[in-house]
Every structure is written in structure tokens, then in C-alpha cells.
Amino acid sequence: MFGGHELSERTLQYLGAVARFGSIRSAATAIGVNASTISRQIAALEDQLALSLLMKRGRVTALTEMGEVVCNYGRERARLTRRFQNSLQEYRTLERGHVTIGSGEGIVSVLIKAVLHRFVASHPGITIEIRTAPLPQLVQMVRDDEVDVCIYAGTARDPILNARPFQTEPLCAILPATHPLATRDTVTMEDIASSPLIFFQSHFAAQTYVDAILEDRQLNCFPAYRCDLFGTALSLVAHNLGVAFMTKGAAQDYVDLNRVCAVPLDHPIAKSFERYAAVRAGRRLMPAAFDLWRDILSTNSGLFQTPA
């Protein structure tokens, strides 16, 4: 913006052509425009700026010092415009972009196994940022648009969330591979109450389910350990130091290595452990983030719904 007026892109192109070809007539011939049109447009630009942009050097028309400044500005503006248009095209065709996922720590392995392999294969140019946090922080990240999509276990009743269930998996007792109950199809809380128990912090969804089961069964159990990371709890179990509680999906890497066993808890509450995907209500997702949302919701459910 110069003198309160936007500089015409076409006039800037004419000025650049004169600088390149050495005269208005030669520039006009090269770009297929009448010489009078170029002359008139550049004269109008000089009046607008109150500066001379061209000067004569013998038989050659050259740029003044200020003409060089304006011409360089025109080239830079054209370059930025091309970059902007290319970026728009890349985003529209999903060749480039950035998606941020918020996740509960115990769900990251589920996300990787169930969703990310397929998503990365179909969106090779997209950078994926994964941020793990407790549920209250995940909700705040969604509120502040710090994440595009978040996934979590349990229920967060917040009107800001457009939350949809995408997967249900029973809550399990995570036992050492050598535990006497490791080969059972199910176990009750009474079966394992005498074992060293590994609890999580109270804000963990898995812990709220465990607390509800203990209250329903009127059991007073005190943990031998209390952790704030699923990995820590799994390591304790793998070293035969106690019994933890989470879904098989959260413990899958350790289960696959035969370091622990995941045995479903025999209780109605344990059967309804749901995972949710959420976006901020009313937010319009970029194409790549929307595709990720769709992929998560279709995991093990065939569910496809558009964020409101």
C-alpha cells in the first residue's frame, strides 16, 4: 500500500518488463501490449508515488533508484503470491499440512495401531504432532484450539466438546505373565484384592472405574503403588511387583512381548470402558484433521459422522 492506494500488479509487471528489455517499446513487443498502455500505466504510478521510476541512459530506458525499489517489491510480491497459491493448493490436495492430536497417555498405542498407519499412508505430507495429557488438560487444549482432535477414555461432560464414542473395550486386570490367574478368562476384584495393587492418580479414567467397582463390591483396598504413567505401571507389573488396571489395548505392547497378561474384570462397570474422540463444538476442521477425525470414528465401529 503506497499513498493510500494498492499498487497494481499489472503495472508492476510492466515496470519489470521495461527494466528487463531496456525500453517501453521493446517491453511492449515482448509481452504483447501496446506501448502507450505501458507508458500510461507507469506514468500514473509515478504520479501516485510522486517519484520518478524511469530514466534515460542514452538509448536505453533504465530504472531510477526508487524504480529499482518498486520493481524489487513487485518481484517479491509476485513470489509471495505464488508461494501462497501453491500452499493453498497443497493444503487443498492434502500434500502438506499439520495435525495436532491430544491423547490420554494410555490411548497413544491404540491410536498408533488402529489409526495412524492408515492415515500416514494416505497423507504422507502431513506432519502429526501428538500431545499427551490428563483429561482436564485435554479438554482445555480443545477449548483453546491447541489440538485439532483429542481422544480419551471415560466421559468428559463439557458442552464445548463435540465428543463421539469410537471404541469400547473391557477394563482388565494387568497381571504378571507368571501370575496364577493369568490364564483365566475373567477375574473378579475379590480374586486379586490380596495382590499388591497398582493404582493411578484419581483423574485417570481407569482409576475412576476401579474406584467405582471397589465401591460397588464394598471392598477396601489400598494400593502398593500409585502411578501417573501407564508405562510405569506396566513396568511394575512386568517385574512381578503388582497388578494394574487398564484395557488390553493400553497394555498391548507388553502383552505382545508376553511380559504381562490382560484378563478382563468380571463386573458390569468394567464392560463399558469407552474411548471418545472429540473436537471443539462448532470448529471447522482443516481437510487433513477432518480425515483423521473420520478415521478415528470409523475404527472398529463403521461410524462416520461429521463434526457439527
Automatic annotation (TrEMBL):
Source organism per UniProt: Gluconobacter albidus
UniProt key word Transcription regulation: yes
InterPro entries with a match to the protein in the record: HTH-type_LysR_regulators, LysR_HTH_N, LysR_subst-bd, WH-like_DNA-bd_sf, WH_DNA-bd_sf
Family: Belongs to the LysR transcriptional regulatory family.
Molecular function per GO: DNA binding; DNA-binding transcription factor activity
Residues in HTH lysR-type domain copies: 7-64
UniProt keyword list: DNA-binding, Transcription, Transcription regulation
Protein name according to UniProt: LysR family transcriptional regulator
Pfam families documented for this protein: HTH_1 (PF00126), LysR_substrate (PF03466)
Signal peptide (from-to): none
Organism taxonomic ancestry: Bacteria, Pseudomonadati, Pseudomonadota, Alphaproteobacteria, Acetobacterales
Cross-referenced PROSITE patterns: HTH_LYSR (PS50931)
Matches recorded under PANTHER family: HTH-TYPE TRANSCRIPTIONAL REGULATOR YBHD, NITROGEN ASSIMILATION TRANSCRIPTIONAL ACTIVATOR-RELATED
GO CC annotation terms, alphabetical: cytosol
